[in-house]
Structures
1.
Amino acid sequence: GVGAMRWSQSLLSLLPLCLLGAPAMADESFASRRAAMDYLAAALPRATAENPVYKTLSDGSLSKWLTHEVRFGADAHGATTIDMRESYTQEKGGKTVPGTHQAAFSLGDVEISEATLPGDVTPDGKPAQAVMIACVKPGCVAAVWSGQKSQSDKTDIYIHDGATRAKILAALRYLKTGAE
């Protein structure tokens, strides 16, 4: 999912990230910005729905994130902006807590990479794999956690399927290049 609840935000900032991304380059599989946007709007909800439930090793909680909507716009400099709306369910000690999350950012203000997040694992114990969106300048991600506004230096999208994760990463990088 995109991040985790507040208590996991601090955990995430402490986790070593294995950033595997290369410099942003246009992916030839997207004929246009519209094609990349359409792909992301359809693929992110589908990919998060197909993710397993993740276990957070620090506290044993189980979580499932679902992306419901992805919107696109442009900032004052013409860079693509993204606004993602999600829901999550977190279970710990037999208690299930639902929540919502929204993350908005400009691709002009972030670096996009692939990341391995060992603090959260799949049911078979493998570390979570994600697309990491990290601010070039602090606080560029406007977030809303179950109605509470906050700023963040990064957000992530857990995507278990490797081929889907690679194509989502490519679409985001394509949009970041500003190519038409």
2.
Amino acid sequence: LYSIIAFVFIVVVCCGGLVLIGRMNDIIIANFYTDKRTGFYNRAYFDKYLQKNSRTIIDDGTVIISVMISNQREINKEFGRNVGDDVISLFADQLRTVFSKMNSMFVYNGNSHFIVILSKSDSITAEDAVQTFAAYLDNRESCENVDIKYEVGVAETFRERVKSARALLVESIKNRREF
């Protein structure tokens, strides 16, 4: 009887330990590389991602979309930080709604700056999605009394002829236009 109990205990402990070790990367990403408000990857994860995947990003036809809430400070001053946080959450939700079906990665880079990376996509598809995103924000139900000004820039690897993923990000920032 004791042998059976010991065997079951060892199997449970070993299996539980293996599952925990297997999920360790997910735990680390959730705790250290994810923005808590938006659920998007944070700047630290994005930096590691760019270092590791720069060549792949350039070779695979990637589109980077840079979204910046340009009047976030004014929103925080006029309506309070809670409303400002609600605006950031609204942007995250709308970006997720529009771009989640497009093989995308989402990053909240801090300071009201969002980055969407679309793998194996093109700028025409991205521009259409940006227009859909703008329409969603125009018809929003939350924060409707807040005047939100934002800028969106799109850069594509094949169109921009850049040699690194960071240069592509810089191009997306340069290409921003106001909404």
3.
Amino acid sequence: TAPDVQGPSPLAVAKDKLAREEALTLAEALLREIIRLEDLGMRLWDPEQLMQINEAAVAADETYRAENHQIAVTAYQTLIERLEIVETRLPDLRARYRALAESALEDVNETETLKYWEILAALSPEDADIQAQWRQIQALPQISAMMTEAEHLVQADEPNAAIELLTKASELYPDWTPP
């Protein structure tokens, strides 16, 4: 009688074991890159793509759990390649958001200024100048409130108090000249 052949061959088991190990290695690399891009503010400058990547990563995980390890390897590799493309765009994104941030500040558009500087600061965690300016930019709402209060003080015929308040406001962001 012929031997009873049941289950996968040892080579198939070995191949699946290698694919499972590779999938885990790739999943770890993918996770590290997702975390890195999240730390660089991807939720601010490309939330749609971040959501798609996270959804695709969950789908790849489901494929792995279903023990389709080779398909999971391909899915993780594809996602890593996609993130590498995003990574190559970072210098252009920094330049774009720097221009938008500076333009919004020049136009005295507080909402846009805060938005674009937050993105630029997230994209540039190592740039001390950008981080220092971002800390000053964050004072704009307080400065605006102080300017409004100073207007009320002038209307109430209290110019000295208004000048004192505007002096304090200018100390919060010395390099900025309000309109």
